[in-house]
Amino acid sequence: MWKTILRRLMIMVPEVIILSVLVFLLAKAMPGDPFTGSINPKADPAQIKHLMEINGLNDPWYQQYWNWVVHLFHGNLGNSYQYQEPVTRLIEGRAGNTMWLAFFTMVLTYAFALPLGVYAGRHEGKLPDTIIRFYTYVTFCIPVFVILVLGIWIFGYVLGWFPTTGSVSSDAQTWAQTVGSRFYHILLPSLLGALFGTVNIVQYLRSEVIDAKHSDYVRTARSKGVPSKDIYRHHIFRNSLLPIAAFAGYSITGLLNGSIFTETVFSYPGMGLLFVNSISYRDYTVITALVLIYGILNLVGTLLSDIILSIVDPRVRIE
Amino acid sequence: MAENFEKHSDISAADLARLNQEAQAEATPSTAKIIWNEFKADKPAMAALVIIVGFIAFVMIGALFINTPKMMETNIMDYFDKPFTADFWLGADSGGRSVAKQLIVGSRNSIGIAIGLTVISSTVGICWGLISGYFGGYIDWGMQRVYDFTMMLPMLMMIIVLVTIIPHYNAVSLTLIFSLFYWEGTSRLIRSRTLAETQKDYVAASKASGTSNWKIIFQGIMPNISSLIIIDTTLSFAENIGVETGLSYLGFGLPTQTPSLGTMIANANDPANITLYWWTWLPAALEIIILCLSISYVGQVLRRAADASQRQGAAD
Fold first, then answer.
1. Where are the domains of chain A?
2. H helices then E strands: how many in chain A?
3. pLDDT digits (tens, 9 = 90+) for B175-209
4. Fold classification of B48-315 (topology level)
5. Whether residue B4 has pLDDT greater than 70
């Protein structure tokens, strides 16, 4: 068990190093520099050159990379050129928003998917199953951003039920109002994301339940007189729950990718929107930091899932 | 061989012909035939197939008759013309450009990129999975580490960064950038099936009789997993439509002067457009949904055709 985890961690180290070099080089290769145009129009080229020199942007790339890594280990990701603020503080403010959004989306996804999957498996081939399978078919391939745009149009603008921009209303004064307003802003994007993100879980759970229905332990439970409802709730569901829980780690990748679309559509100030804005301003320090953070989060998610799976299925460990 | 058979067998030519015919009647029909039967049995699937093929043919041919640079010229007199008029069936956008024409050219661009992306990424993914699964050992280990690494990359962010780096990108370079990242799912799927397939007797027999590895992979294993390949390619085509349109929606896809379904939906980013001038973006959004649903439905039918126990059209 620990050996598996340790080995996974060992593989992670070179991956993170390669990613950091790659990200750093890509950011350097982006055209333009952060100073031209961002300071006042009267600034002369000599001054820009001086600024580049001070910020070490004229050094060879490996030296710049090394400086960056040394700063990284001191918890210093540099200054954002656009916002004139340390990147760590900038991201700190946005990360919370993105995390809450992703967290709620995940909770709602599981809240929808678990009952649907069990119900579809239980009534295999009957009307509810057909309806649920139709629902998974519809939600399977429609690009999320189209759904988000349609959603904000119908529920945000036409019906006016939900706010269409920001993460918290400016009228919110007290603590309770702030929390309520935040929740209200997160509700529509996470509902839409969850409704259209259940496919994998529902399909997996459905086939698990169908398999389990004919297994020996269920027959034993039936023959000793356990009510059908309890068999599904306690016996089958509990057995299928861990592999389903393992999906949570993998789904982090999808949620993070999705955050870029969700936050753009809803003008929600999280890391995804920050990334899109930073790209337009060539804000290298912010871009590198965000790509690195997303990459590491992906890795941690996969690691979590693999650990859960190796607990569930010992065959994975030997491999 | 045939001569030998004539000499030593006591079956007459007529009998042989009859036996051949019987064997053919009883033999499993070819994959193409099974799929065709399945479509004949399922009318909605047939409708979906006709919609897809007809629509793609329509936009490909229709786009040839539209002068794109002229269409993209702004014409302030037609600013936000209402839809359903003689000049503008679907109205005009903020630059007085016909939405209907943009829709046709945009569909051509978006579908073309999706097809290119599907062809490239599926080919890479299939080869990657086959080679990795067949050879195993160090080759598999190395290829899996590359796979793990690309899986860890934040895909969307990397694509956006790459798009901004390349100075004069067009549809082709855009497709190539996407292809760098979208082979992964296919490769994983093909690899796991190849691993199972490699254990089978026919592979061992081929190896023992000295068939070259490449021949076994591409003439032995690949035809045997062809149904999986067909299904996966169809479904990834449906998903790939969302890739370019999504990036163009964010503003990092096709350049602004090149219409795409994504840039048209981006019209909805303006709070005034989204409600007042709904015709500038809604048709593109609906088109993507209908297209994806149709392709995905065809994929479902193919999946059913591959699984003998679920076929509807195999009775005859």
1. 92-316
2. 14, 2
3. 888 898 888 888 988 998 888 888 888 888 988 98
4. MetI-like fold (1.10.3720)
5. no
Instruction: Determine the length of chain A.
Output: 319
Gap from B225 CA to chain A (nearest CA, Å): 22
Asked whether the beta carbons of A4 and B138 are under 8 A apart, the reply is no
B152 vs B172: CA distance, rounded Å:
25
Specify the residue for token string 């290119």. B116
Q: Of the candidates A145, A149, A256, which has its C-beta nearest B154's C-beta?
A: A256
Q: Are A236 and A209 in contact (CB under 8 A)?
A: yes
Contact B247, A257 (CB under 8 A): no
What is the full DSSP assignment across A83-138? Answer: TTEEHHHHHHHHHHHHHHHHHHHHHHHHHHHHHHHHHHHHTTTSHHHHHHHHHHHH
CB A307, CB A245: distance < 8 Å: no
Residue A36's contacts (CB-CB under 8 Å, 6 or more residues apart) are A48
H or E, element range at A82? none
pLDDT for B75 equals 66
Whether the CB-CB separation of A23 and A286 falls below 8 Å is answered with no
Q: What is the predicted pLDDT for the residue at B118?
A: 93
Domain A92-316 sits in CATH at 1.10.3720.10
Q: Quick one: pLDDT at residue A22? A: 87
Among A91, A134, A146, A152, the strongest candidate for a mutation testing the B interface, having the largest count of B CBs within 10 A, is: A146
Ranges A145-149, A280-284, B76-80: which has the least confidence: B76-80
Give dist(CA B74, CA B88) in Å, integer.
Answer: 14
Contact A30 B164 (CB under 8 A): yes
Integer distance in angstroms from the first to the last C-alpha of chain B?
A: 35
Domain ranges for chain B: 1-41, 48-315
Interface of B with A in 182-241 (CB under 8 A): 235, 238-239, 241
pLDDT of residue A64: 80
